[in-house]
Amino acid sequence: MSVIYELIDEDLRSDHSYDERPDPSEYKMHMHDEYEVLCFQSGKGVFHIEGREYRPEGGDVFIFRPGESHFIEISPDAPYDRIICHFNMNLFSAIDPFGRLAQPFCNRDAGYLNRVRSQDFRNASYRNYIDGMTAESEDRRLQVLSNLLPLLNEISIAYCHRDEDKNDDSRAVAIINFINLHIKDDISLEEIAQGFYISKPSLCRIFKKATGTTVWDYIITKRLINARHLISSGVSATNACYASGFNDYSVFYRAYRKKYGCSPINGGQSLAD
Questions:
Q1: Of 52, 179, 271, 272, which one is least surrounded by beta carbons within 10 A?
Q2: CATH code for the domain defined by 170-266
Q3: 8 Å CB contact between 266 and 256
Q4: Rounded distance, CA 77 to CA 167, Å?
């Protein structure tokens, strides 16, 4: 993979990456603690987002809120070109006190309306902002922010006028929504499977196909992200453990250390982790 442009800051990260021959094994299900905008330039594949599928086209923009699982089932037969920006929404709190820019990310069910197609934008000027985020500049942070802000505004406008994507596996989506609703509860594979009148093997197969990961890895990752947010806001590691759905502190401690490379007692980490 070739990184054409990269900015790593405390609350802002942006990069332009290009894979001449992408390796599908490198693109696993993941989620972030921050907001993400992914500008799809070219490639061939299918995005899996919380159990829903999107077939991207050049010029599409994908948005993800914190904790929203996603991965691309990429084809090695075509180069994969994308521009990605991760950021904390509080960067814009002073100029957007009512949170309008966050609405496309938050005012929807997980996995719904993640794509803004090129034809959904008012005009082609949104592409200037995408290109502007990676243009040469002495102040890269200012360069990214001055283009990210109007891009988010264009996304917000387009969000109000587009149709919902229809291509999803409704059963997988229902399972994921159920898990998200009960993520802090003491749930088991047996209970989830019984709730949808399917066997445990069927549950695992449906979930793995939709998300690219196992049910339990998904639950653990979601709980860890929630615990990390609590810890970074001043909650003790012990209280964050149990408030996030873990019922064994030693299990939580090992999982947290494995994912974030540090003890939960050390508090939250930077975006560059």
A1: 272
A2: 1.10.10.60
A3: no
A4: 23
Range with the poorest average pLDDT among 105-114, 143-152, 230-239: 105-114
Give residue-wise pLDDT tens across range 45-82: 999 999 899 999 999 999 999 999 999 999 999 999 99
Spatial separation of the C-alpha atoms in residues 205 and 187, rounded to whole Å? 18
CATH 1.10.10.60 residue ranges for the chain: 170-266
pLDDT in tens, 180-225: 989 999 889 998 888 777 888 888 988 988 888 899 999 999 999 9
> May I ask the CATH architecture of the domain 2-159?
Sandwich (2.60)
Q: Which of 253, 211, 268 is nearest to 29 (CA)?
A: 211
* SS3 at position 19: strand
DSSP for 130-159, please give it: HHHHTS--S-HHHHHHHHHHHHHHHHHHHH
